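Q: I have two molecules that I believe assemble together. Could you output structure tokens for the complex as a whole instead of separate predictions?
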Amino acid sequence: MRPGGHSFYSADMERRVLKTNPLISRDDVAALHDKLFRWCLSRCGSDRELAEDLMQQTYVEVISGSAQFRGDSTLQTFLFGVAHNLSRSHYKKAAARARLAQRSAQLEATAAHDAECDNLEIDAARLWHSVQELSDRQRDVIELVFCNDMTIEEAAAVMQVSLGTARQHYSRAKDALAKKLSEMKSEVFDQAPTRGAANE
Amino acid sequence: MNDEQLKSQLRRSYLEAPENSQPPEFDSVWAAAEAQTARGTPWGVLATRFAAGFAVAGLIGLFALGQWRGSNEMQDAWTAEVSDSLLNTTVWSAPSDVLLLGDGPDIYTSVPILIESTELDVEALL
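A: Yes, here they are, computed for all two components at once.
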């Protein structure tokens, strides 16, 4: 029992199941904490403070029972969907500003990084910047499917779009990234003989 | 490049991205969320919701009042017209009177005759 006499958990103290959401336990949410934080970061244009606030509000929705989990999807899909809805309703403007700031910062960082980078392998940072350059929905579906191991159906549920729309964005995003990767590989191949000749 | 290769490249870049750095401690964020839930909805938010509710109710009430007053005005005008036309004449006519032969019956002269008479009046409606 917390100081002040307020308990959010049912009698099953071992699992700490929430009274307002009987299908969710504290430990279940803890296991998804890191993934949820990264998802909140992407909702907030990588603004860490905003992302922490969004994550806390997501937990408030779950603890208070405002968002009810009925078990018709995975807990990850449910939590990601709650965060996505909150970002669209309460954090839209702040997130848009943060995203604009992030994109301009990335352009500068990419230019500086390209000048300094001596690594001939495909650069993870450049690849991630390519993902950030996709449209919002393409980026979201790529992040959910490739980086969070969701199916396209689950990603569509989180993004609240139809399955067909999610598949379309997924296909276009994949094609755009594959093309970007090929360009990066070509650059590496083109540079290699030049560097070899320069070192002689 | 197949999907698996693209996936592994993307996951690596996703995890290595500087913005996807160490998340905050779960215990602290969860505890803050519990404290916020225990405090309840902030008064400011509640006040805003009530104000919005009252505003909507007020708009609906104004619209309903406007509709009611409009229908009453129409009824008053119709009532005034009917009253004036009835007061100014002793001849009552109905739409079916067009089927009658000759002039319509005068209620002050024809009705007493019709009630008292035992003879048939060929022009009477009764």
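A: One point stands out. Chain B touches chain A at residues 1, 3, 6-7, 9-17, 19-21, 23-24, 26, 29-30, 32-34, 36-38 (CB under 8 Å).
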